[in-house]
């Protein structure tokens, strides 16, 4: 919990944790938006194009823990996609 002060007085502000959720699938595709990993004794793909933002209240069941090197590889793949995507032009 944090507090902010404005011209009226002190106010409490709720702290909210935000997470990126990236779904997994067992369908292996040769696609830049599908990142292959081995998780829970299965070959799976992380569907990078289906990333969603959600808050901590949606975390209820833990499926397992991914090795750090998988997480770093997925993070690099996400950065690569974001860097190669051209923003839409106004017009």
Keywords:
two-stranded antiparallel ribbon, 91 residues, SH3 type barrels, single chain, three-stranded antiparallel sheet, 1 helix, alpha+beta
CATH architecture: Roll
Number of helices: 1
Largest sheet features: 3 strands, antiparallel
Q: What are the segments in which pLDDT stays under 50 over at least 5 consecutive residues?
A: none
Beta content comes to 25-35%
Strand order across the biggest sheet? 4-6-5
- Protein structure class: alpha+beta
* Helix fraction by DSSP (H/I, runs of at least 4): 10-25%
DSSP, total strands: 7
User: What count of structural domains?
Assistant: 1
At the third CATH level, what is the topology name? Answer: SH3 type barrels
Q: Mean pLDDT score, rounded? A: 77
Q: State the end-to-end distance.
A: 43 Å
Q: What's this model, at a glance?
A:
With 91 residues, the protein is α+β, with helices and mostly antiparallel strands.
Task: Characterise this structure.
- With 91 residues, the chain is of the alpha+beta class.
- It has one domain (2-84): SH3 type barrels (Roll), CATH 2.30.30.
- The chain is 19% helix and 33% strand.
- It is built from one helix and seven strands, in the order βββββββα.
- It has a three-stranded antiparallel beta sheet with strand order 4-6-5. Strands 1-2 form a two-stranded antiparallel ribbon.
- A hairpin with a 4-residue loop joins β1 and β2 (10-13).
Map the helices and strands.
Layout: E1 2-5, E2 10-13, E3 18-21, E4 24-25, E5 34-39, E6 42-47, E7 52-55, H1 68-84
Antiparallel strand pairs: 1-2, 3-7, 4-6, 5-6
């Amino acid at each position: 919990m944090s507090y902010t002060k404005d011209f009226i007085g002190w106010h409490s502000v709720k702290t909210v944790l935000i997470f990126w959720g990236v779904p997994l699938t067992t369908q292996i595709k040769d696609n830049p938006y599908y990142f292959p990993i081995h998780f829970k004794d299965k070959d799976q793909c992380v569907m990078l194009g289906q990333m969603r933002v959600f808050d901590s209240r949606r975390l209820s069941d833990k499926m397992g823990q991914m090795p750090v090197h998988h997480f770093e590889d997925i993070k690099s793949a996400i950065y690569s996609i974001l860097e190669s995507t051209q923003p839409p032009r106004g017009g």
